[in-house]
Amino acid sequence: MLNWAVRYFPILRVLKNDSVDKGLILEIGSGSFGLAHFYRGQVIGCDVNFPAVPEENMLPVRCSGTSLPFADSQFDIVVTSDVLEHVPPHLRPAMIREALRVTHRLAVFAFPCGSDAHLLDENFRELHQSRNLTPPPWLEEHMQYPFPELELFLGVRENWTVEEFGNEHLRFHQWLNRRELSRAWCRVFRVCLRLVPRLLEAALRLTDRAPFYRMIVVVTRRTME
Fold it and tell me: For residue 144, which of 10, 86, 116, 121 sits 20 to 30 Å off, Cα-Cα?
């Protein structure tokens, strides 16, 4: 649960700092919870599968992120959190193009970035195996491909403004993964998220320092239609 907060709190800050009315929001690869678990407004969530009942404020749509069933510029904001690393490298540019095609002005991409982050997850998988634990599906998928790099966004800079910032120190990510193997720690994290979310967010911001596990890329259309 705290891993979700680490991922989504920075994205929520991007949305909060956006001076324009939020409008219609799409999350690609939302699963059953995603941004809707933390955001109070409605979210259109698209994914190939929804393994649980979606959040009440999510409208689920089954589809592939590389072929979205939406019109050009249909959404004001598109969010893609920890999805690109699950996509084969040759399809990642197509997912980025689709996200930018359907957004009117803003897209936010968050993803584990680079070889050091990938090595950390390799070690986490080995920890599961050493303890005779079955690695979670998301971790097995992380092993299939190299993690995305920032160079993925070089081709969009002609028509878009691209900003990036880091999220989650590598050592904190390693510590958090190990703590979330414990049910007791997971209960503590749930209580903190429920009772003191603002204090927890402030504490998590202190972990946003290099070397980063994750990068967040904010892509904004340069000209408004």
Answer: 10
